[in-house]
TrEMBL record:
Cofactor(s), by name: pyridoxal 5'-phosphate
Keywords: Protein biosynthesis, Pyridoxal phosphate, Transferase
Entry annotated with the keyword Chaperone: no
Domain of life from the UniProt record: Archaea
InterPro entries recorded: PyrdxlP-dep_Trfase, PyrdxlP-dep_Trfase_major, PyrdxlP-dep_Trfase_small, Sep_Cys-tRNA_synth_arc, SepSecS/SepCysS
EC number: 2.5.1.73
GO molecular function, one term: Sep-tRNA:Cys-tRNA synthase activity
Organism: Methanolapillus millepedarum
Lineage per the UniProt record: Archaea, Methanobacteriati, Methanobacteriota, Stenosarchaea group, Methanomicrobia
Top-rank EC class of the record's enzyme: transferase
Annotated protein name in UniProt: O-phospho-L-seryl-tRNA:Cys-tRNA synthase
GO biological process: translation
Amino acid sequence: MSLDDNSLKMFQFIKRDALGSINIDPLQTGGKLTDAAKAALLEWGDGYSVCDYCGGVLDLIKKPPIEEFVHKALPEFLGTGAARVTNGARESKFAIFHSLAKVADGKNYVVMDSLSHYSSKVAAERAGLEIVFTKKVDKPEYRISPEDFTEAIEAGISAHGKKPLVTQITYPDGSYGNLADVAKIAKISHEYDVPVLLNGAYSVGRMPVNAKELGVDFIVGSGHKSMAASGPVGVMGVTDADSVYAQNLFQKSAYNKVKEVELLGCTSRGAPIMTLMASFPEIVKRTRPENWQKEVEAAQYFIKRLEDTGQFIHYGQKPHQHDLIFLESPGFFNISEKTKKGRFFLYHELKEKKIHGIKTGLTKNFKISTFGVGMENLKYVADAFEDILKKYDEI
Ligand SMILES: *Cc1c(COP(=O)(O)O)cnc(C)c1O
């Protein structure tokens, strides 16, 4: 393409207008910036902006207080002995998988729940690990049970002649918002002397999660998914800071004594980590049990409102315990079959009503999130769904 001034303007792309809209996009509700993070984004947007006072180790920078954040506040928050900030949940998972794989002999594998996110799979692949999944889960609950892990570990041992390097559980899974019995899964895994990695991309920063209390060995989270950070930024923790897992994960370079190999020396620098830190006080508050309980109640209210129309089926754990909600909507689907706009009708209807977040073109099945939306807005969205169904004579 031509790189003249006029052509280059296309890259100064304006965000599709979610401004003034109610956002129910599961990818976005937990990553909306706090006011403090918005200010930090502007202030720290320049490249390498945090490196002014760096003595060689990014997470030991005292001003701004990155050291205090990474080495004190974050481990306390995650319930781990040590923590680091990374460039995302997937980078955290890759670092953990790779740190385990590099000290193991031969071909190895990880056991994962069958609802694992694609980023867990590619992280394992990139670390040279094969994957054994727990069995496929069934409609309508799509529940992963602890026994599924026993089965998968046994199947892995039969197929590979050795135990897995690690088991990974997605908490909650990114499709149905189901919360598996992690404590039990961890116990099962530990009976085989296999460490457990909790993928908290949809939990860390939204709800109370504590690695030590759940009995897992590693935990990862996503700053831009669930911690009100611009990102890309993630977190990772290892429960026992004195363990061989921690030693391998935080191994220092032979060529530069202060740089950690799995982190490629430094991870998040500049605005991503500064927005994460700026939102952290709010993150701590919003994940307190009493606040999370309100979010769960809001999600349950929204599900009930939709189910009461008779035109929505909610899949997943009941009563639902998370803001991520998977729905089937025969009503919307019927409309899409008969209207001229086809399956795009819903996007247009919702746009008009200033509701953002259902993927364009989806009508039959879709995911939404009620996180931080608030009761008043949720009532508005439920009313809007009803109005659309009425407009096309579905109820
Ligand atoms: C969004 C998501 C991720 C990816 O998080 P990144 O920080 O973007 O790497 C991983 N796992 C699950 C379950 C997710 O929903």
